[in-house]
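User: I'm putting together notes for a lab meeting next week and I want to include a structural view of one of the chains we've been expressing. I don't have a solved structure, so I'd like a prediction I can at least talk through. The sequence is below, exactly as it appears in our construct file.
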Amino acid sequence: MALKIYEHMVVGDLSCNCYLIADPQTRQAMVLDPGDDGGQILQAVARHDLTVVAIVATHAHFDHILAAESLRAATGAPFYLHLGDMDLLQWLPTSLEMFLGVQDASPPPEVDTKLSDGDELKLGEQTLQVIHTPGHSRGSICLLTGSSDERMLFSGDTLFAMSVGRSDLPGGDQGALLSSIRDRLFPLGEMPVYPGHGPATTLDRERVNNPFAGEGSRFWSS
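Assistant: Thanks for the context. Below is the predicted structure for the 222-residue chain, given as structure tokens.
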């Protein structure tokens, strides 16, 4: 039985997509991109009778990690982040003031495990594969799950429906972002894509039509 998205929550001031993903057999769950509203996320966990065994951020921007530490304390589950974004965690207070006008000297969440490309995260008997996709940040990742027609891609802020992540923040690189999408994501084949913001899409739709990274874009051959 494939992994299932038990709940999709839009959290925080920047409307981050937070996904509650679990193995239906063991009820072991992952919270992906806990951008804020930790209480709401915990209510969803309880409502579906799940056990959180992993808290994962696709990257270290504040709108994807603000509830990580409270969830870590409430569930005892480890927090995972790609090693390339460890320095970006220290930008948390500055970015909160820059984007929200909030002065907060609280420390960033503690990272229990630093992820690398190709790592596998287990939920029961099911796995999600870590795909390192730098460009939005140095340590941005996507997660690939399932097999054959049951595969799903969680793309963080790398790839959106008809758009791509911004590359003008610390650690961003437009060339690396486009290469990540074209070289690491598009060759995976057709599957649903669940991004860090906005609606779901598919890889085929983005490969053909995405105005920034698709085959018809002016950046395709750059």
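A couple of points you could mention at the meeting. The chain is about 20% helix and 30% strand. The mean pLDDT is 94.

User: Perfect, that's what I needed.
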